[in-house]
Specification:
Blueprint lengths: L3 H20 L1 H16 L3 H4 L8 H8 L5 H12 L12 E6 L10 E5 H7 L1 H13 L7 E5 L6 E2 L5 E3 L1 H6 L2 H4 L10 H4 L4 H14 L4 E8 H24 L9 H8 L7 H11 L7 H5 L5 E5 L8 H8 L4 E2 L2 E3 L4 E4 L12 E3 L5 E6 L18 E2 L8 E7 L7 E13 L2 E7 L4 E5 L2 E4 H11 L8 E11 L6 E10 L10 H14 L2 H8 L7 E5 L3 H11 L16 H9 L1 E6 L6
Parallel strand pairs: 1-5, 3-6, 6-7, 7-8, 20-21
Antiparallel strand pairs: 1-2, 4-5, 9-10, 10-11, 11-16, 12-13, 12-14, 14-15, 15-16, 17-18, 19-20, 21-22
Length: 584
Amino acid sequence: MAGEKEIKEIYENGMKILEELTSNAHEIQEQMLEEILIRNAGTEYLSRFFVHGQNHKQNFKTNVPIVTYEDIKPYIDRIANGETSSILFADPITQFIQSTGTSEGKPKLIPMTAESFEKRMVKPLLVDLVMKKCISGLDQGKSFYLFFVKPEMETPSGLMASLYTTSYFKTQIFKNGLAKFCTSPIDTILCLDNKQSMYCQLLTGLLLRDEVVRIGSSFASVLARSIKFLEDYWKELCSNIRTGYLSDWIADPACRNAMSSILTRPEPELADLIQQICEDKSWEGIIKELWPEVKCISSIITGSMSQYIPLLEFYGGGIPLVSPNCGSSEACFGINLKPLSKPFDVSYTILPNMAYFEFLPVNNDGGGMSHETTTVNKPVDLANVKIGRYYEVVVTTLAGLYRYRVGDILKVTGFYNKSPQFQFVERQNVVLSIDLDKTTEVDLSKAITKAKLVLEPLGIMLTTYSSYADTSLTPGRYVLFWELKMKGSNDLPKLDAKIMEECCGIVEESFDFTYKSLRKGGVISALELRVVKHGTFDELMDFYVSKGASISQYKPPCCLKSEEAVKLLNLGMVGTFFSPKTMF
């Protein structure tokens, strides 16, 4: 495989490579753009933007439009249906990468070449090197990572479509590299039954608890789900450890075979210890109790995942939370060079060799619709971003995406050498809309962050949330779903109506002028807050997974578009509260 030499070099000289990349960021970006255009200028898509003999690089930003997925979807669909990949790019396509599908509905298909796939495999190795350099002891044990795969889909062209992680976990580079340092046997990771996979990975993690120095997953939502799974199955897991026998319902042959080399004998003392820990009514610090040698919890906890930070801090018992990298299905953005930064201070450093990056300026607070500003503000390149400004990222890749709006918002916080560093902000898309009001994910997140401060002195935690616009009545209203728990237990907190109504009011006060005007004029009715019982959002995850979402890359929807999903959360409702009818 062409990438193996590069992988070996990264293991040996990774930090030096990072210094070279970031010190020459602008030059690398210009070389990348030139290479992309030289290769692909003759494609059907790009050739229509350049007249014969025109300098492609010089006229790229003038001639080639900034696009969204919907603009290029017809080209991708043609390739998926069997036409040649030269429609979009010169190199042969090897597969499609699927987006998660929970942020904006249906999964996207992102073309991938052998070269672009190999380039992406560099990122996990760089992340691992940075973490081992900054956190002592990570090279002296195993990593308990919860990894999952999703079935591949064959397109009419014969090319396969899958999540990036599914493809990556099947490569020899993963199997012969990072997988060797993980507690989970590869066959438990590749098991298509998520329940059997989760059970076997947790069982292995418990059996090897004294060797575990790092716990993690792709997204924080997966860790939150695994803790709920542990709550449901710890007695059965202890029974397996006590008897040395794997539960009969684990029927996957590869899983059973893999576990036979780990669950080799009865360990009643270990089972008694785990039982004693799990029987405690409060699970505060339980990760530290179960895995005493753990140095960090590694998972993406920025953007929409930041809602899980209080929960992971509660269960982690002081273990540092590390958000190692940032990216999307379309491209890798950057890695965290200061992994021990506090969760809300995390900044990522752009890797300039992953794509050609442009940045569309958006409103100074990260809110508002970025498409409203593009006619005034032109995109800037990597070298010309300004510290403190917010931008929507636009990528041009080796695999057929040209000036493509990813939809993610970044706040520039500084530079590492000559490469920008940024904080990841929630997606800019509108999530709630009634009449003229357009409330974005950023707006909603900021409002809820303010409101939940009222609950914290009472020992109440907001574990996760979602929303939807209820237009079944006139006037319509925005509805929030909150799952709450007490810090000392999983018991449902006593819901004080005045406190909950105050939370509703704070959310509404945080919305913009348009919302307040429509609310005052009676066009939008009072906001409603529905509290659901513990575990309801885990059932929501199960629902989306049953519809094709991946458990390993699950992002809880900020706004529900599915009536089935709304009904599911309503079934778990234990209380409902409203803002005062007149506020503004």
